[in-house]
Amino acid sequence: MTSLLARRARALTQRRCRLHVSARVRHEAEDRSSTQTTTTTHFGFKTVPREMKESLVRGVFSSVASKYDVMNDAMSMGIHRLWKDHFLRKMAPPPGARLLDVAGGTGDIAQRFLQYQDTVNHDSRSSVHLVDINPEMLQEGERRFAASEWALDDRLSFTVGNAENLDFIDSNSFDVYTISFGIRNCTNPDRVVSEAFRVLKPGGRFMCLEFSRVENPLLAALYDAHSFHVIPALGGLIANDRSSYEYLVESIRRFPAQDDFAQIIRDAGFTTIGKGYENLTFGTVAIHSGYKF
Question: What DSSP letter does each residue of 2-55 carry, written as one string?
């Protein structure tokens, strides 16, 4: 009888030990799971692991690179050219300026910058360094400039690189930094702006041209109809890629509103004049600007 009770007591003790170990293992697994949980971000309206967004965005622009300029004309009915012309007039770069054009892609801003310097400032010393995370987009830019005098005079250079980490560029080395229709595709726009501040010379200027928020309700409804129905259809027809243009439209809606992005620019250390931005076409796009003082 005593032996039977002893065996039962040992069995109960072992069961309690197993339960304790099982609970401990479960809690440790839960702790590991919580510490290893991947932070997420948006890719258009989708939620994706933060570390995946860069490759997803790269895939989008690899797909549309060859039709990118044609699609810009189709989507905006050519108005993007007026926005970019105004962007350069607002920049009014001085003679001899060095421009870092990030997410420079096919070279629209770089071309306008060099034309402005040639025709307005009669300057043959200014130069542009184009940076883009997508090699196919940069190849389109290189093709655009291949036979130009700017390329022959070494006033253009191209680098595949991430706007969030420009470790291949020295601090305090550029007069103007531009990013046109690119920052909304970056995983961490605040890091992009901080890197811009680092690479600009004291007195240098940060300028961003980006899609923004239309505040008038009636115009916003018309803009949404065009964005969500017409643009993806054009993407399917012209670029044979509807889904990439669905993402591009969605990415606009996920980007901070004008005042919020202006504050990100100030938080990075830039000084803004007035509210820090100018709306174009009822807020369809905005030009943001800040100075490194």
Answer: HHHHHHHHHHHHHHHHHHHHHHHHHHHHHHHHHHHPPPEEEETTEEEEGGGHHH
Distance CA 215, CA 107 (A): 30
- For 40, residues 6+ apart whose C-beta sits below 8 A from its C-beta are 47, 48, 49, 50
Q: What is the DSSP annotation of 128-188? A: EEEEES-HHHHHHHHHHHTTSHHHHTT-EEEEE-BTTB-TTS-TT-EEEEEEES-GGGSS-
Q: Give just the sign of the alpha carbon dihedral 261, 166, 83, 227.
A: negative
The enclosing H or E element of 124 equals none
In whole angstroms, how far apart are CA 39 and each of 42, 50, 143, 261? Answer: 11, 6, 39, 22
The CB density around residue 220, as the number of other CB atoms within 10 Å, is 15
Q: Supply the pTM of this predicted model.
A: 0.84
Provide the pairing of β-strand 40-43 with 46-49.
antiparallel
Residue 132 pairs with which residues in a beta bridge?
160
> pLDDT tens string for the chain (293 positions)?
445 444 544 544 444 444 343 444 344 444 443 344 469 888 777 788 988 887 877 778 788 888 888 889 999 999 999 999 999 999 999 999 999 999 998 999 999 999 999 999 999 999 999 999 999 999 999 999 999 999 999 999 999 999 999 999 999 999 999 999 999 999 999 999 999 999 999 999 999 999 999 999 999 999 999 999 999 999 999 988 898 889 889 999 999 999 999 999 999 999 999 999 999 999 999 999 999 99
Q: At which residue do the structure tokens 């990415």 appear? A: 251
Q: Are strands 98-102 and 46-49 parallel, antiparallel or unpaired?
A: unpaired
Are residues 276 and 289 in contact, defined by beta-carbon separation less than 8 angstroms? yes
